[in-house]
Design a protein that fits this description.
heterodimer, A: alpha/beta, TIM Barrel, 11 helices, 8 strands, about 35% helix, globular, B: alpha/beta, eight-stranded parallel sheet, 12 helices, about 10% strand, disordered N terminus
Chain lengths: ~350, ~375
């Protein structure tokens, strides 16, 4: 195994909201009343039961409640054993699935306040991502500006599958605010299920949805690049969270070829897609969809032609890696240092 | 840019023979709107005049993502006698088959009877296009072989069309497109795979098609380039569906060809499938072996458009991971992103790999001597 080094940054941990009612203290009277009067139940964005074995590594599962709903568990399972300097909390609560922009805005605001109070206040190693109500760009920008006053919020969080491709111009005020406030935009695996989870329709199985996340990231990168997001906001960083990394190089070869062929369609794309990815896009490490052999893995990293693209992550408490083997076999000590320390700090300006 | 000049010792011989190749993706076109009418019952001719094809989209003409060039074709591919690019056999012979020494050319007609909501019309049009391929193309040039176009959304009528054509040496594969109403592994398509396996014909899955789903899982993008790049994501999802629904397990002699959607993504998709399958295999007990094994044994890839890395050796890593025995050279004639045979592989590839890539793999797969 490749050993992690102390002082690293885990760019993808998932504190769990115990229940929708956990947000009640952070909602105003109207929304508190809505939640209770209408008998709203928990918002769970995964398609399998909460106590299913696939929701968490077995040794990270608490006796009661959701995995990763307790700070002490997170400390004991990840923060302490990996000797982390920081961990970035990306709450994956089902607020993205709500269609009402008013309700979504109220829930996002409450979720962000909950994260600050119940996690960031209680462990100085933790940093937060701002969950935004994507049904309203105006409300999303307002929430970013509100939360950004707290310097512990270091990223804006969106899902890879939402209502529209992420490069669409209507979303640009979100990116303008993120760039202005030095917040990278993290794009996490997952769907609001407002569209079929693959580009060829609805599959039968969870495993199919999961494999399909990689294709969703590919489509979003195309959209972000060709719409010109990084021509307009050159300092904006985006981080693909739980995207997998082994597809990056061959995907870019194809995009690059077509860009050369039809760039007259999108003349504002002023740099080659390869260059844009190297300067503006980063990818989290786990879950690592890599080949079993270390020598193949070394070639894969060489295909990326950059050692700055990948950021360390455990994806705590999810099930993707075993024991402490968060780093795949075959990585050099230099690359481990870049992945665990240098690359995250270069990506997140607020990470101090 | 450096240009080297060299005095020719003598005039180049016009008889220089290029090594024979197979072109596994040629698109024959109709010269006129009514060219299929002789193969259609009066009822369907009338239907087309009054109602059109009624596809899984609203537009009769004019794609929502306009192509980069007319008919997405090479600007030099207009036949001198008129008609759209790819509609003239004599011009195709002159421009593609003769100069490149194409020994085997596989026809994949697009804009046919597929992706049509009226399944009876779909079946009638597919049957017509199959007759037309024989009359206009394969009976007139023995280098050309046809693909059985089938009504993709109605597995039973598609299977009937395959059985009707089975054993006819004009046809070397069954043709599907990657984008359908559902992912290609779904049960509605199984009769197609069963009939193809019985007939000993590979099933080609060409990029494109239309089943009403947005071309990203996050809705409709804005540009033609997103559609073009997106075909490789569609193909990956379609192939994942085929594996995870157990199509290869159920039809172990079935062979499939991924056409015009790239191949660079194949190793990555296999690693991802294998890794996730190890964790989640209890959800899909019908998938008995690691997904990559089915793909290694039962899937081939056409080469065009070749991925284009900055460093050529990176692509050769990928080809090695896929297997030199699994790639089938294709030009995509007459489309604009045509790959020129002489420029695809640089020097340094072994003679055996070069021969397999350009010709041998295709002859073996398609059973053509």
């Amino acid at each position: 195994m490749t050993s992690p080094i102390a002082g690293g940054v885990d760019c993808d941990v998932h504190p769990a909201l115990p229940h929708l009612t956990s947000l009640l203290p952070y909602l105003n009277d109207y929304w508190r009343d809505q939640v209770t009067t209408r008998g709203m139940v928990d918002l769970v964005s995964q398609s399998y039961p909460q106590n299913s074995p696939i929701t968490a590594r077995p040794d990270w599962r608490p006796e009661t409640g959701k995995p990763a709903e307790s700070l002490s568990d997170m400390q004991r399972h990840v923060l302490d054993p990996f000797k982390l300097k920081h961990a970035i909390c990306n709450p994956l609560y089902g607020v993205q699935m709500v269609f009402s922009e008013d309700m979504q805005a109220a829930f996002c605001r409450a979720l962000n306040d909950w994260l600050a109070k119940e996690w960031l206040d209680r462990d100085p190693r933790l940093r937060g991502s701002i969950v935004i109500p994507t049904q309203s760009v105006e409300k999303a920008v307002a929430e970013i500006e509100r939360c950004a006053q707290d310097k512990r919020f270091i990223q804006v969080l969106m899902l890879v599958m939402g209502d529209m491709p992420l490069g669409k111009r209507v979303l640009w005020p979100i990116y303008e605010a993120a760039e202005r406030l030095e917040l990278p935009v993290g794009i996490h695996a997952g769907s609001a299920y407002h569209n079929p989870p693959t580009a060829v329709g609805w599959g039968s199985y969870h495993i199919e949805d999961y494999v399909g996340q990689a294709q969703a990231f590919q489509a979003q990168l195309t959209s972000l690049i060709v719409e010109g997001v990084f021509a307009k906001y050159p300092r904006l960083k985006m981080v693909m969270l739980e995207s997998g990394v082994s597809w990056i190089a061959p995907y870019l070869w194809r995009l690059h070829k077509f860009w050369r062929g039809v760039r007259m369609e999108t003349p504002w794309v002023d740099r080659a897609p390869l260059e844009i990815v190297r300067s503006n896009i980063r990818f989290s490490l786990q879950p690592f969809d890599a080949p079993p052999e270390p020598e193949t893995l070394i070639r894969l990293f060489e295909h990326m032609q950059s050692d700055e693209l990948v950021l360390f992550s455990t994806d705590y408490p999810h099930w993707q890696f075993d024991d402490q083997d968060a780093l795949p076999e075959g990585l050099s000590p230099d690359l481990v240092r870049k992945i665990m320390i240098d690359n995250p700090h270069a990506t997140y300006p607020r990470l101090t | 840019m450096n240009i080297q000049f060299r005095e020719s010792q003598e005039a180049e011989s016009p008889l220089t023979v290029k090594p024979a190749i197979a072109d596994c993706d040629i698109h024959p076109a109709r010269a006129s709107r009514t060219e299929l009418y002789p193969y259609l019952a009066k009822r369907w001719q009338h239907h087309l005049e009054v109602y059109g094809v009624h596809a899984y989209q609203g537009m009769m003409e004019g794609p929502p993502y306009p192509k980069a060039q007319p008919n997405a074709s090479r600007r030099d591919a207009w036949p001198p006698e008129g008609g759209p690019q790819g509609s003239s056999l004599s011009f195709m012979q002159k421009q593609l088959l003769d100069p490149n020494n194409v020994q085997l050319g596989v026809l994949n007609p697009l804009n046919t009877g597929q992706g049509i909501r009226n399944h009876e019309l779909s079946a009638a049009l597919c049957s017509a296009i199959n007759d037309w391929q024989i009359d206009k193309w394969t009976s007139k040039d023995k280098r050309l072989k046809a693909s059985i176009v089938v009504g993709n959304e109605d597995g039973l009528s598609a299977a009937a069309e395959i059985r009707e054509r089975a054993g006819d040496k004009n046809f070397v594969q069954v043709l599907l497109l990657s984008r359908n109403v559902e992912p290609l592994g779904q049960r509605r398509y199984w009769p197609i795979y069963q009939a193809a396996e019985e007939a000993g014909l590979p099933v080609g899955v060409h990029a494109f098609g239309f089943g009403g789903n947005p071309i990203t899982p996050s809705g409709w993008p804005s540009y033609y380039i997103e559609e073009m790049v997106g075909h490789s994501q569609c193909q990956q999802s379609a192939l994942a569906s085929l594996v995870l629904e157990g199509v290869f397990e159920r039809f172990p002699k079935l062979k499939m060809v991924m056409i015009e959607a790239g191949f660079g993504w194949a190793p990555s998709l296999c690693w991802r499938l294998d890794k996730v399958w190890q964790r989640l295999r209890s959800e899909v007990p019908h998938v008995k072996r690691p997904p990559s094994e089915y793909i290694r044994e039962q899937v081939w890839w056409t080469t065009q458009p070749m991925e284009d890395p900055e460093r050529r050796e990176d692509l050769f890593d990928v080809i090695k991971w896929i297997g030199w025995d699994r790639l089938l050279f294709a030009t995509d004639y007459p489309h604009w992103d045509y790959d020129e045979p002489s420029r695809v592989l640089p020097a340094g590839v072994s003679e055996a790999n070069r021969e397999a890539f350009y010709l041998g793999n295709a002859k073996k797969l398609y059973g053509v001597s």
